[in-house]
Structure to design on (507 residues):
């Protein structure tokens, strides 16, 4: 089977800085991949190239066997900073992509209703983003991305700015939605627990230069539950990922996004 | 503080100011008219219709020049913000002419356009245009890249990004620019009328100066301040309404 997303020898340089070097990765259709690594490991760079927001210096990314050329609605992105349109209400934000796709008013409304319900924002349909909490903003952004029915979700530390409790809640919602409608997900995070809890496979990257370090298989069943999160099997994989991420961290950890 | 409390403090401050003014003029140190004298003169000129006519003449010039200036500044500001080529071509001129006070253009405007309405409106247009265009342009280039990316990812092409992201995101900047533009237009009209006009608050002050009519000078100055403040407040409330979505710290 051909991979849904295929990074083929992708490199990206910014001046003298090698953000990403010779990056190869195949992501299968419907797979949930998480990407962890220290700052400067090129994980955001790799995602932005797949999204079409950034051109690689060399190599290429194929989506469904076709080269990526610019962003498109089949590849939804969830940004860490939410990126909601602040002048639009929750409903208008969710309908934004549908509007561009030329969907009629009635259809837009029913799709938006469905996804606002999915993320639990029905009561806030007419609220402006400024009145929402961080977690609610991110749920709105997720609903907006889902609404255009992307086959691929690219998530760049989407829960990075949220408190631990909200984070765990959103992880469960995300997995639930993924269980219902299978999409291919590439999810970047700094949080090793989050990476293991969500993924089929954890991609560990290393910095200077940004590159693929190893891929760790997560052989845990879905649906993932609290029981699994607290199991020995989970802990074993988590420790394995932790060691892979932190072993070459001889410098103090920098928490900035990479 | 409650609304009533704030109002009471404002009124108190006004009363204190008038008291100090009255004290100054009563002390005869500088030979200024007192508030009562000015109020009487003001009431007379309101009743005769002269103040209203002058204010209307000034306002008409300001609004004509300001609306024209803003109407040109907004598209040019967008053009500069959106197209790098337009920016490179236009910005040097804008930056250069911004350094010339519009008032300095008045002599040239009078020589080339005569002493009718055209040179005055032109100078006000210039004042409004130069101060608004920078704000609009600054607004466009400071739109959050992530919002533009978010729109593109949802399928938006250039035109849609412009209409549905760039324009709404720069509205707060545009409104700030318009407020600055209106302020400098108002400052400019009075000066323009001082030089050559047959009507307007600036012209009336010129007349009052000739006839040593100090109370009338005060009446005009107060009218200029009150009208300027009123216009600014109107724009401010429009701004608040149009940018209610903004997160304010």
């Amino acid at each position: 089977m051909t991979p849904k997303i295929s990074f083929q020898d992708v490199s990206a340089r910014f001046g003298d800085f090698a953000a990403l070097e010779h990056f190869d990765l195949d992501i299968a259709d419907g797979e949930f991949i998480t990407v962890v690594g220290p700052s400067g490991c090129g994980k955001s760079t790799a995602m932005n190239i797949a999204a079409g927001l950034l051109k690689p210096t060399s190599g290429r990314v194929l989506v469904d066997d076709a080269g990526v050329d610019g962003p498109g609605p089949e590849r939804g992105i969830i940004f860490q900073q939410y990126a909601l349109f602040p002048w639009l209400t929750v409903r208008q934000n969710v309908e934004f992509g549908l509007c561009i796709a030329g969907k009629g008013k009635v259809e837009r409304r029913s799709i938006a209703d469905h996804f606002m319900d999915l993320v639990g924002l029905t009561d806030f349909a007419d609220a402006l983003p400024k009145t929402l909490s961080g977690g609610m903003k991110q749920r709105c952004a997720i609903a907006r991305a889902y609404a255009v029915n992307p086959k691929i979700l690219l998530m760049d530390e989407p829960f990075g700015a949220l408190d631990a409790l909200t984070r765990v809640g959103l992880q469960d919602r995300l997995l639930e939605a993924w269980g219902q409608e299978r999409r291919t997900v590439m999810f970047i995070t700094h949080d090793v627990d989050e990476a293991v809890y969500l993924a089929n496979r954890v991609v560990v990257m290393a910095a200077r230069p940004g590159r693929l370090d190893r891929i760790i298989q997560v052989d845990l069943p879905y649906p993932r539950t609290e029981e699994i999160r607290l199991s020995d099997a989970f802990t074993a994989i988590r420790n394995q990922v932790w060691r892979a991420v932190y072993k070459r961290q001889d410098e103090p950890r920098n928490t900035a996004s990479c | 503080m409650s609304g009533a409390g704030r109002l009471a403090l404002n009124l108190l401050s006004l009363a204190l100011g008038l008291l100090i003014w009255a004290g100054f003029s009563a002390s005869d140190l500088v030979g200024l008219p007192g508030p009562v004298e000015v109020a009487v003169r003001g009431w007379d000129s309101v009743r005769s219709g002269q103040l209203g006519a002058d204010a209307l003449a000034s306002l008409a010039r300001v609004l004509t020049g300001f609306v024209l200036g803003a109407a040109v500044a907004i598209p040019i500001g967008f053009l500069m913000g959106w197209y790098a080529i337009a920016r490179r071509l236009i910005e040097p001129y804008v930056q250069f002419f911004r350094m010339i006070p519009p008032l300095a253009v008045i002599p040239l405007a009078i020589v080339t356009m005569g002493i009718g309405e055209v040179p005055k409106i032109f100078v006000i247009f210039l004042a409004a245009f130069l101060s608004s265009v920078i704000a609009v342009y600054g607004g466009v280039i400071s739109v959050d890249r992530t919002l533009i990316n978010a729109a593109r990812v949802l399928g938006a092409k250039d035109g849609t990004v412009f209409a549905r992201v760039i324009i709404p995101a720069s509205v707060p900047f545009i409104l700030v620019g318009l407020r600055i533009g209106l302020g400098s237009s108002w400052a400019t009209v009075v000066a323009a009328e001082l030089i050559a006009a047959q009507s307007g608050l600036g012209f009336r002050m010129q007349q009052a100066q000739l006839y040593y009519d100090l109370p009338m000078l005060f009446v005009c100055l107060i009218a200029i301040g009150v009208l300027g403040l009123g216009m600014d407040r109107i724009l401010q409330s429009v701004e608040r309404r149009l940018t209610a979505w903004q997160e304010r710290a």
